Each structure stands twice: as structure tokens, then as C-alpha cells.
Amino acid sequence: MNRRRSNPNKNYLFPTKVALALVLPSIILYMFFNIWPIVFSIGIAFTNATRENILPNPERIKGLKNAIACANYLKTSEEYKEIARILLANVMDYMESIKSTLISMLKVIEANNSEVYIELGQQVAKLSSFVRRLTRVRPDIARVFNCSALGYETSVELLPRDAIDKIDRLINLVGLLANYQALDANVFKFYTEVGLNITNSLEVYFLKLEEDYEDYLEKFIFSANKDLDRLQLKIVVLDNFARLFSDPRFYNSLYKTLLFTVVSVPMKVLLGVLLALFYSSPMIYGKRVMRAFLLVPWATPFLLSAITWKFMYLPNGPLGMAFNLNVNTDEWDAFIVYCLFETWLAYPFIMTITQGALSGLSKEVIEAAYIDGAGLWSRMRKIVFPLISKPVTIATILTTGASLQAFMIPLVINGGYPIGEIRVPYIGSAVGYKNEVLILFGYNRIMIDNEYGYAASMYLVVVLIIVAYVTLWFTISRRFSR
Q: What are the residue boundaries of the ABC transmembrane type-1 domain, all occurrences included (predicted)?
């Protein structure tokens, strides 16, 4: 028995070890960059992932936790309760005094007697005195309710910034009123009314804080816990799917996707096959040039094609005006344009596949059938169609899968408009985009609602639909082939 021996004189480009060292990292990287996005997407479908919690800021989480701990300390510490009570009581006294003084100033202005400037001077002096006292306690307000000063490092504020800003605005406004002799009467009255409005809002806020100190802190803790909960990525198991299958917008997008597929696939397959058969005839001259022209939709960048179609079918576009179409407000006008655009984009693919199959057809077989008396339809049915059936079937499967994943066409043409009420029997109703296909529905849940987990659950359903479709098609094809 002869054994094949390697030729010692044969030169290899790379030794085996070097080849493995080059190939294995490439395979590992390829598997990593193809598998981990799939695994990640499937995992996200079972979580409450949003734009906020999918990659949360650790500093923000730490700040919220510290703010909650700070509020709990202020709520339970008797020492700080007493400090806050005294401080808030002083603030309320100053607010009451400022309010009564501003009201008196308005009365003096409205009376408009001969001693108006003397009386205003007295009231402005009183107002300035009360505001100086408020100015002295303002740092105390910021200090008592400052968590960072208490050792709880956080950027979250217990008191809304708006309240402190209003105090500053009131202080600045009183500085303007102090120059009352140089101000026009109407301007002075306007400033006084603005100051009174600011004082009223501050009085309401600090009165509520004084009377319901613990309740205020409890509400702050509740709100901060909600914000913290929103930043926590949690496993919700099948909640996203339960919500999906009770969402009327999902059923509408599923219906529009299936309808788009059922309408557009026969259109592009029929057009592609007919054009391939037409240009396979020896009686057609200039076939190469005409074929090249028909491949233009395939070669043109999608965005350029989409913008052109959108322009043509706008209500004031040439075809929109010619056929009285409005893709922005009419649901079915837009749907028709989707199907026509999809047909225009995809028929070159079907035509090319069919032409490739027809190129293997023997002229002798056709001529022999013609001599035997077979008519055109008979030759097509018994010779041509059986030959092209398998390639066209494969092309149909591929283009159907592409139609089920339609996304860019409705997005670019009109974004899935119009918006209106969507009613689904036994499910309910919701307001949404009436021409949302499945992929666009998921895209909008991410871009508009920031709901990554919900969108991922929808995409997982789309994948299962496509897998089921391909499996069913091949099962039926195998049975018929037997």
C-alpha cells in the first residue's frame, strides 16, 4: 500500500502555526462582533431598558442615594427639625412684613395724593429693612437644606432652585424700588406688583414647608426613589411581551407589514420575471443597453432614490398633483407609494436572477419543441417555467424577508404618517402612526419613547416571524419537490 508523502521541496507561504495564529484571532473577533449584539439584544428584550438606565451615570445614582439618606436624616433628627422650624418661622415673618409693605405701597400709589413721595419713602425704608433681614437668613436657608454641607455629597437639591432664585429676584427688585424718585409712576407700580407676586409665591411655598416639614421631606424621598428606580436596569421577564401583545399600535404595524409584503412581493416578482423574459427574446435589439438602464434603481444610492420619490409624490410634487395624492395626510395614498417604491427598488434583483436562469436554457430544446408544434404558452409552461422556478423561488424568499423588514421606505417617504386613532377589535385603541411597519414601530419606541427593552421585544418577535416564514416555505417546497 503506497502512502502519500509530502514533498519536502514544496514551499508553503506560511507555516501551519503562523497560519493558525493569523486565522484564529480573526475568527474569534468575527464571532464576537456578530454574536454579542444578538445575545445583548435578546437579553435587553426581557428588561426595562431605557435610554436612562441602559448605561446610567454612577455619579447620578450615588447623588440620588445620598440625597435620600440626607432627607431621611433631616426628617428624623430632632436637632435639625428645631433649627428648620425656627428658620422657617423667621422667613414667614419677613415674608408677611414684606407683603404688607408692598400692599401699602400700592395703596399709596393709587391714592396719588400730594404727599405721595414722603409716604413712599417711609414704606420703601420699611421694605428695605425687612429685605435686609431676609438677606441675612438666605445663607441659612441654603445651609440648613444643603446635603453636601451635612456630609451627603450630592448635586440634588432639597429645596428647588427656583425658590432661592425668587428670593434673589425679590432682593434685587427692592433695590430698584429704593430709587423710587427716579422711576416713572407706572414703572414703579409694575415693579411693586411683580414684587408682590414673587412674595405671594414664596409665602405659599415656605408656609407649606413650615406646616408639613416631614411630609415635604417624605415626598422628596418618594420622588428621589422614583428617579433612582428609573435608573435601575431590571429583569421584567415577559412584561414587555405582555405589553406588546396588548398594544393596538403593534397589531396595526403587524397588519401593515404583512399587507405591504403581500402587495409588494408579487408586484416586484412579476415585473422582474416579465422583464427578464422580454429581454431574453432574440427579436429585441439593444438588449444590453436597455438591461443596463433597467438596473439603474439597483445601482442608485437608496437615499437619492428615496428623496426623489418623496419629492415626486409630495402633495405639490409632479406625480402627487397628477394623481391627487397626499402622502402626509392620507393613509392609503402613502401605502401605495411605499409599494411602488419597493417594486422599483427590488425588480432589478428578480430580473437579474431570472436572466441568469434563462441563460442556461438550451436554444436547441426550444427549437425542438417549436418543430414538434408546441405553442408559445406550451413552451413557457413546460420548458421555461420549470427551469426558472427554483431560482425565482429563492429570490422570492429573499425579497419577502426584505419586505418583512421594511423600514427605510416609510421612514424617508413620510415617517409613517399620518397620525391618528388606531382601533383593534378586542384589544383597544391608541393614537399612533397609521403606516408604521414593524421595524419602524420599534425604531420609534427607541427614538421617541426611549424604551429599549420594549423595542427589543418587538424586534425579537419580528425575528421569530421571519424564522417561521422561512421554515414553513422550505417545508412546503420539500414536500412538493418529492
A: 254-473
